[in-house]
């Protein structure tokens, strides 16, 4: 579904830009990066509408009109403002000395409790929740579609007031005269940044959708007993950091999140004093100087804020990952070990496992006629497509894709069908999703669909029923990467392995607005799991940089599923590094990684110059003057990242060497030995092979070198790993992605 959305987005974007003379006069939102004159603090600059007023003459508009064009002003994560301007107006102001760059804004989309148990966090007395006091006092800022105040997941029972540094507020606008009632010691802030047609709205931060309620409660929801959806997934619901505070920044409305509003939310969150930012939003990958999340995220990171983002829902095609800047945590999505089992049983006795959240009690086990209206081609059960086809009292097979999965069931139901078997497309393979279907239904893998279609073809009287087995835990081969999770390599920075990490993103139970809870899937769901885990780390290690926290998450991840095989993908094959990144997050290990790969803001300057960006491109991202000719430029592989990507050219003699530096965050005295695994097609070495530490925070560097072992044709990427292992059994693991060109 997501790739379809992107396709339409892309088309409309092209249309918009290619509109020629007519669109020239159309006003669009621009993000205006401003050069503050030296000696002036960006905070003193305050009202950017003055700047636009000052050029009203150039724009040939009234001063008041100029002021009204301003949407938001930014002063924390960038210096500048957003405004509604036409292309010719942008051209007219391009020569003004304070203008650094005017960038058209972008549209993002939201990327649609069992998980604490699955992640090993269940027991209130468990060591991780115990050691972190469940994230108490840490503030997680969530940029999404708003919040449902009063929901039990936002109960503040036993919560302390927000820390003294908190400067945010609760602003429910027109929604309530008693905003105080809405906010409490759990939900400490809520504001809306939605701009409609250019003017910042007074819209309330109330979630009209449910997405923002779901993501924020996943990150830091309170304990709620008996949470369930239609009786399924019953249990104790809780977020990853149940005692962290939540601050909500509404930036999405009606399934769209405008770039200028996202920047405004990030800007406010940094000023308010959040510790972690969670963004379950995605768009097409763009160079970082055009990408509001990359720009806002960079300057949040320099202020010590950890930024966690969804990888996107455009898999399984490769090079689809978004939110891929190295200072962001990019989160892929996997299954948990829970299934909402709905077994399809055919007239010939064969059975096929599928999934559905809706598990009707009274569905008769008698056999119903089974039809597939598509014959040899796909049949999507689009609206109106069953007109004139007799499906009364029958179970209908529908292929996945184009229209929504739930809508397909509604189409079947309206046509008089009694049930639906929803069949994956080839690219979705074995990845199935549990949905709240409108009728008895089961979502099955592609391979099973082929078998059922063949049965329908070969039988004169095909019949089937659906058996609802309920919620099953300990499902084999979990976690597994889902087909929808966006894959690397990154288009923008192929020399940094992305996504970074995998978290639960399939059939996640969390709070919702209209009903109490909902089970939904997406990298939108995996991102807030990691945001909550980052909050737990921050609680125990308040002095760690965002890069150190990320390193702790990545180097302790696991790579085997519950059958001791490599984590699989939608084809049931071992998932590659472009699907899982460093592996699946393991909260039980993240507090004590032993060593971390740290990165300073200055290191990123060298990296950005090394990407070939101009001084001005770099300036738009980092909002300070960087002269790339006077600082060290480094290749991507040289950034002190916790994973390693190396490209080896066909020229066999060339050795590629990177230097990495690790910081000791474990016991003062520690020794680590290098264990390097690479496939035969390359030879690799680490120098030195032993690192000895005598102090906490001591740093040690090593060099890792790669060379092709023989001249060979280019092959797809191959994989290896570097592990630093201590006699006390600490393992600091970096995956290695090797691209043979
Ligand atoms: C949790 O902490 C309490 C004290 O705060 C301690 O008594 C208890 O043993 C700890 N439990 C675990 C599992 O570490
Ligand atoms: C079913 O039969 C039709 C016509 O005989 C054929 O074209 C199609 O490929 C068959 N489909 C399957 C799944 O076997
Ligand atoms: C689901 O229920 C059906 C019918 O009772 C049974 O045949 C099947 O084995 C069950 N599947 C699982 C995995 O429990
Ligand atoms: C898992 O597999 C590895 C080999 O791949 C083996 O060394 C290890 O003992 C296995 N673990 C379990 C629990 O079976
Ligand atoms: C950047 O640095 C180079 C080398 O130090 C110098 O020649 C150049 O003038 C500088 N450029 C700017 C714009 O300061
Ligand atoms: C990307 O996908 C194509 C087609 O599936 C495959 O041939 C290619 O090897 C992939 N590239 C990488 C870098 O994995």
3D architecture notes:
The protein has 741 residues and is an alpha/beta fold. The chain has five domains: 2-104, no CATH class; 109-335 and 478-593, Rossmann fold; 339-472, Glucose Oxidase, domain 1, CATH 3.50.30.30; 600-634; 640-740, Immunoglobulin-like, CATH 2.60.40.2310. Helices cover 23% and strands 27% of the residues. A hairpin with a 5-residue loop joins strand 2 (70-74) and strand 3. One 2-acetamido-2-deoxy-beta-D-glucopyranose (NAG) binds at residues 318, 489, 578, 716-717. One 2-acetamido-2-deoxy-beta-D-glucopyranose is lined by residues 375-376, 453-454, 457.
Q: Identify the CATH homologous superfamily of the largest domain.
A: Peptidase S8/S53 domain
Mean pLDDT: 89
Our estimate of the beta-strand percent is 25-35%
Low confidence ranges: 1-23
Output the structural class: alpha/beta
Q: What is the straight-line distance between the termini?
A: 33 Å
The dominant shape is globular
Q: How big is the Rg?
A: 26 Å
Question: How many strand elements?
Answer: 37
Notable traits:
single chain; 741 residues; alpha/beta; Rossmann fold; Glucose Oxidase, domain 1; 5 domains; seven-stranded parallel beta sheet; seven-stranded mixed beta sheet; 21 helices; 27% strand; globular; disordered N terminus; binds 2-acetamido-2-deoxy-beta-D-glucopyranose
